[in-house]
Amino acid sequence: MKWPRRNTPPVGAPEVEPKWRAPRVTVRGAHTGRTLDGAVPDGDPSTAWDRRRSEYKLVSPLNAKRFTVVVVGTGLAGAGAAAALGELGFKVHAFTYHDSPRRAHSVAAQGGINAARARKVDGDSQRRFVVDTVKGGDFRARESEAYRLAQESVRVIDHMSAIGAPFAREYGGMLATRSFGGVQVSRTYYTRGQTGQQLQIAGAQALQRQVKLGTVDLHDRAEMLDLIMDDGVCRGVVVRDLVSGQVWAQPAHAVILATGGYGSVYFHSTLAVNSNATAVWRAARQGAFLSHASFVQFHPTALPISTHWQSKNILMSESLRNDGRIWVPKKPGDDRAPGDIPEAERDYYLERKYPSFGNLSPRDISSRAAKEQIDSGHGVGPLANSVYLDFSDALAAHGRETIAARYGNLFDMYAHATGEDPYTVPMRIAPGAHFTMGGLWSDYDQMTSIPGLFVGGEASWAYHGANRLGANSLLSACVDGWFTLPFSVPNYLAGHLGERLPGAGDACVRDAVARVTTRTSALLAVKGKLASSHFHRELGEIMYRGVGVERTAEGLAAAIDDIHDLRHRFWREVRVPGEGRQLNQALEKAGRVADFLELAELMAVDALDRQESCGAHFRSEFQDGGEARRDDQRWAFASAWETRGASGATHDLQFTRHAEPLAFASVPLATRSYR
């Protein structure tokens, strides 16, 4: 069977009235688009991946070397895809703006990686994994992809262990597991509090092996700034050498974007300061749809901001919630030291509100509950902007040695960041912008709305719906990189054998390079007085205020206007010193902030358009006693936004919302309950 490659009818085909229509867009300046087909195999979602994979077309080993594939990003998804495709014999160009692929932000994930291997006698299974993932995402993701995630999770653990990830083990040698939020079983594999770092080291080593073998060309300190587009098809990328400033094009038969999420749009986020959205947003500006733009996870165990001038949040692993108990004083404004507050005057609010899951309630619920306590005057710490995460009971029950073996490096990190000893006083935590469930829309084969452009990892919208369960991020990146894209990309390439790559003299390459140089010149020509970080910080304040943990129609409308005004001020007042053809970090930052300002407007539009509460998208107007109220009759679909409008200071962006209906055959739609 030939699966559809583009979500448009064949040329000359009669228009067919769709059986299903999404609600019309009512946001000023935005428009309603068409219904999308995600090309999900018909039938039982539990067998969809097996059936699809067995029908994929193959590329023979002798022909693989005739194809060039670009992979942008060298985190778990990018490193895995580049290494796997290189192993298959394809000619791969891997790009990273870091000085080494192992510096990719996947290192920051601490707590663990999920897998439905069911090695413990606790009732876990692949089916239970799917139910937890679909329910955890509040029924706003494809059910069939949750099955793929569960199925491949078994292979991921064995594979990453085989290539060097030092997973923790039980006394008898079995790999150890622990629990994470949103589940009642133990399915999270870990390497103390360094899981992302150890997986990233293993993936980077596999990538470097292919570099040594000559199948992968690694380009470090190179930032992708645009796509090469030829008659609507992606034919490569344009990059800027961050050391020399040289702009150059790399043609390809297929491109994979694995560049991470866009949570740093909030300025204060758990992401690294250099994390950005440019690759994804440049693709969106060339016609790739961006789905679920406003679905942003606020991590409940970030460290609170201690000063306005702090450059980022610090993440503390969710795994700490296995043994730590979260509480606030029952009395508002109580500023006594935590040790002076007796048990009877403490509110363990998650255990009170959600007794079945307690401190392991899902992240969206836990963050919302923490914000509720802080806003009502029960916050603790010098700025009253946090809650306690207390290990005194666990230390008394298990001893310091056991707790140190589980979380020692996390405790050390907390002590270094705050000057407080979590072995003797409770940690202070608060919600912080963290993971973006939204990303580039893609079909079941992970190809975007642009033929030839694929996406993986957090840059994609797949798997997580409106809320990601803890420890599913490392898993989804590994599944994409090692076990999905190495099948689906060759399937696409098999139909393009013998195609010539565009050269430097072709119009599509010249146009792409010209777009990059024109934009660079425009940034350098503003000659304002304010650094781009000034605008980024102001944007973060707007986003936390209007598109944060809790949203309202009034606040979102105000945020859209504020972002629009800020974007125009940026293009009048930003100052970028230096030149383009040299090392220029101010230019890098300015380009990324310019993209954030456009993306942020879409995020606010998407949040205002979606008139329901689901997962991390909590609209105050749509709730039942503080719990999210979904509207499955009208909003059980994925929003996929198309963005139009010229780049620069004087344009208004035009957004069109396309929609892919979401059906649930195996996990029936139900109201989430963790009580």
UniProtKB/TrEMBL annotation:
Pfam families: FAD_binding_2, Succ_DH_flav_C. The active site is at 363 (proton acceptor). GO terms for cellular component: plasma membrane. Residues 536-674 form the Fumarate reductase/succinate dehydrogenase flavoprotein-like C-terminal domain. The keyword Kinase does not apply. Residues 1-48 are annotated as: Disordered. Residues 69-474 form the FAD-dependent oxidoreductase 2 FAD-binding domain. One of its GO terms (molecular function) is succinate dehydrogenase activity. GO terms for biological process: anaerobic respiration. Keywords: Flavoprotein, Oxidoreductase. It comes from the Bacteria. InterPro entries: FAD-dep_OxRdtase_2_FAD-bd, FAD/NAD-bd_sf, Fum_R/Succ_DH_flav-like_C_sf, Fum_Rdtase/Succ_DH_flav-like_C, SdhA/FrdA/AprA, Succ_DH/Fum_Rdt_flav_su, Succ_DH/fumarate_Rdtase_cat_sf. NCBIfam families: PRK07573.1 (NF005749), sdhA_Bsu (TIGR01811). This is Succinate dehydrogenase subunit A. The lineage of its organism: Bacteria, Bacillati, Actinomycetota, Actinomycetes, Propionibacteriales.
